[in-house]
């Protein structure tokens, strides 16, 4: 059998039952692909279900407030994807009368949709002969053919796209594209590969040459930036006994745009309680602060793709009214970064 026939045969037996897999609705396929771009299926599936439950149609997503979209996205990271998702839903609802374009080239014009996503939608929904190349496909092809060209360089991107196009089963493109991605996801995995039960083993060059764990090759272009976050968490008690704090919405084009967080002091390095006290009132004017203490004695290191955030949450009990404050009992309704969400859960358990 040819490469594509082996992949399709394997898929017929091993494919997982996933909530979007039986559908050719471009809205559902698009939504699943955006959620799963840098997310494992097990983690992404509950998010997919939540979005479909809240926004059954693309028009529902288009009409939703951004804050609700970001709240549902909370925990997935890469929040620009959620904002692009929302923007594209509006475009489809208003400029395309709620109907997704059917061609690869038209899909590619939509915000947040690149070559891979456009290929997936065009092939799965409209049977267009477009080969998908995601991380799973790169891994399968580089190992099977023993290709050491870096997958994140211009040469590698072009090479693997052309190879994938040559190998695809154009007559069964809908199943074939899903099959090769599934094969990489559960058979030819990044680690703990199942080579001894692999239908491609006899002709796999990486297996033959014992280079399975050396492929695919990726150029390490990322330089990690270290940032030091000091969150100030004022806590006051209202006249009826409710606790309040302050949340501010992030602006600008940096990380976590439009999400909420506590007042922030960013420093060049980790600082002491004496140093934070010196700049506390400038960052957070309060009529009175009873004391200031770190909630976490050891800094929390929150790792993003290109940044490590060394974080301390500083608790500031106060008798100030916090007129524009947020009730602690309602704080979890706000869309916040997962770093802040994890703190809120822990803090509320210790506070109440």
Number of helices: 14
Computed over alpha carbons, the radius of gyration is: 24 Å
Structural class: alpha+beta
Largest sheet: 7 strands, mixed
Question: What best-fitting shape do the alpha-carbon axes yield?
Answer: elongated
On the 0 to 100 scale, the average pLDDT is 93
Helix content: 40-55%
Distance between the termini: 64 Å
List segments where confidence is low: pLDDT < 50 over at least 5 consecutive residues. none
- N-to-C SSE series? HHHHHHHHHHHHEEEEEHEEEEH
Residue share in β-strands: 5-15%
Tell me the number of strands.
9
Question: TL;DR?
Answer:
This protein has 352 residues and is of the alpha+beta class. It is built from 14 helices and nine strands.
Question: Could you walk me through the main structural features you see in this protein, from its secondary elements to its overall organization?
Answer:
With 352 residues, this protein is an alpha+beta fold. The protein is built from 14 helices and nine strands.
Name the features:
about 350 residues; alpha+beta; two-stranded antiparallel ribbon
Task: Reconstruct the topology from this structure.
Elements: H1 3-14, H2 26-35, H3 41-54, H4 58-63, H5 66-73, H6 79-95, H7 104-107, H8 115-126, H9 135-144, H10 154-167, H11 173-186, H12 205-208, E1 225-237, E2 243-245, E3 248-249, E4 260-261, E5 264-267, H13 273-283, E6 293-294, E7 300-303, E8 307-317, E9 326-327, H14 338-351
Parallel strand pairs: 1-8
Antiparallel strand pairs: 1-2, 1-5, 2-9, 3-4, 6-8, 7-8
Helix pairs in contact: 1-11, 2-3, 2-8, 5-6, 8-11, 9-11
């Amino acid at each position: 059998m040819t490469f594509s026939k082996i992949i399709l045969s394997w898929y017929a037996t091993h494919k997982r039952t996933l909530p979007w897999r039986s559908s050719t609705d471009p809205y559902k396929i698009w939504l699943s692909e955006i959620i799963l771009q840098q997310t494992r299926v097990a983690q992404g599936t509950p998010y997919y279900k939540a979005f479909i439950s809240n926004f059954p149609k693309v028009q529902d997503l288009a009409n939703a407030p951004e804050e609700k979209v970001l709240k549902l996205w909370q925990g997935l990271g890469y929040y620009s994807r959620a904002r692009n998702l929302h923007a594209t839903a509006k475009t489809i609802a208003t400029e395309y009368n709620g109907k997704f374009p059917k061609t690869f080239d038209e899909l590619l014009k939509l915000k947040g949709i690149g070559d891979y996503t456009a290929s997936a939608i065009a092939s799965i929904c409209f049977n267009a002969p477009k080969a998908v190349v995601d991380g799973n496909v790169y891994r399968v092809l580089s190992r099977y053919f023993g290709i050491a060209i870096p997958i994140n360089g211009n040469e590698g991107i072009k090479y693997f796209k052309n190879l994938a196009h040559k190998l695809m089963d154009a007559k069964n493109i809908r199943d074939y594209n899903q099959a090769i991605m599934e094969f990489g996801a559960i058979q030819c995995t990044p680690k703990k590969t199942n080579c001894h039960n692999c239908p491609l083993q006899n002709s796999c060059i990486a297996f033959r040459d014992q280079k399975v764990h050396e492929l695919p090759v990726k150029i390490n272009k990322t330089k990690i930036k270290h940032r030091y976050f000091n969150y100030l968490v004022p806590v006051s008690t209202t006249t009826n006994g409710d606790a309040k704090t302050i949340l501010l919405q992030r602006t600008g084009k940096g990380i976590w745009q439009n999400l909420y967080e506590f007042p922030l002091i960013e420093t060049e390095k980790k600082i002491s309680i004496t140093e934070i006290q010196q700049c506390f009132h400038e960052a957070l004017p309060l009529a009175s602060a009873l004391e200031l203490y770190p909630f976490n004695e050891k800094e929390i290191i929150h790792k993003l793709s290109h940044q490590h955030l060394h974080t301390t949450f500083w608790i500031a009990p106060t008798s100030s009214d916090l007129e524009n404050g947020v009730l602690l009992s309602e704080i979890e309704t706000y869309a916040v970064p997962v770093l802040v969400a994890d703190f809120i859960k822990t803090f509320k358990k210790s506070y109440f």
